[in-house]
Design brief:
By secondary structure, the chain is mostly helical. Helices cover 52% and strands 8% of the residues. InterPro entries: Flagellar_operon_YvyF.
Length: 142
């Protein structure tokens, strides 16, 4: 059986018994109230074209929190043509993940190159240096 642990709330820092969220009860209630405001606003047909900035301004919910709702799948960004949040690297508006496809591909190729270079360096470093070995072997024989 899993026992609850004391944790600090990610938002306010207060101690709470962690069970299912990273937030204390007060912060959790605040997040849920914000979600209900945002959800009610975008469910209205007239507001389906709203951008992240417009949605934030109309509901008094921070853009970061709305982006978290989209990123967590609580709001399906694909249903709203203008609703998205900026890529963490370049700022391009995206509807899921943290990076746009371009930045993801760029980082993936850089990581792949780095891993290949490190693997090659490890392989070169592990090979016995035969020339030095033979030199010392010949010198010791004399």
């Amino acid at each position: 059986m899993h026992s609850n642990q004391l944790e600090n709330c990610v938002l306010c820092g207060r101690l709470y018994l962690k069970s299912y969220t990273d937030f204390c009860l007060d912060c959790y209630k605040e997040i849920e109230a914000d979600f209900k405001k945002v959800d009610a606003f975008i469910k209205d047909e007239a507001n389906r074209e709203a951008t992240l900035e417009e949605l934030s301004e109309a509901t008094d919910v921070s853009e970061k929190r709305i982006a978290d709702f989209i990123r967590d799948g609580r709001i399906y960004g694909e249903d709203f043509p203008n609703l998205g949040y900026p890529c963490a690297h370049c700022g391009t508006v995206i509807k899921r993940q943290v990076l746009c496809n371009s930045c993801y591909e760029q980082f993936s190729s850089e990581i792949s190159r780095t891993l290949k270079r490190d693997k090659l360096a490890d392989e070169i470093g592990r090979q016995p240096q035969q020339r030095a070995g033979k030199y010392w072997q010949v010198k010791q024989d004399k």
